[in-house]
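pasting for the record
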Amino acid sequence: MLATKTVVVLDYGSGNLRSAVRAVERTGVQVELTGDFERGLAADGLLVPGVGAYAACMAGLKAIKGDRLIGRRLAGGRPVLGICVGMQVLFARGIEHGVETDGCDEWPGVVERLQAPVVPHMGWNTVEAPEGTAAFAGLEGERFYFVHSYGVRDWTLETNDRTKAPLVTWAEHGGDRFVAAVENGPLWATQFHPEKSGDAGAALLRNWVATL
């Protein structure tokens, strides 16, 4: 029963917290907004939101040991979903205004300013999801809501026979391609805001909750 599942929306001083809580609650799970390490560790799912500057988000995350919490959960195969800057901080580092900040380094890659005529990228956009995706199952051709000036561009991951390559979803803005979502075992992330993406975003959250 979904009602027995619990999701912690991580409160570290960043993100569209109330709308994220409400969106996840609508999937039928119990949701708690907290920055408590142990409660975040114990929950069936952890959602990491994020709005604003990369460096500020990383500072807030580290202040509550959120980076360690994410690492501990993933080491145990426990689901984590990152949204917007909550996705960006999962990469190795971010560069904003010439300042380079270390991220959680769950994936190699650099978050940098989009190379498009108009920035920020704000509004609805389609995505290119790969075959076998669970996040976008049943969502072919749907549009999602983006608000960002930075992203991961030109991303390639080297894998071997011991590691499974992540499923990477792409989007394009002003001729610039960037990573729109990643599925990597228990770790999912979206650059767009599912909680602002109407029925399509709600369906994606239900797809995530189904993995808990």
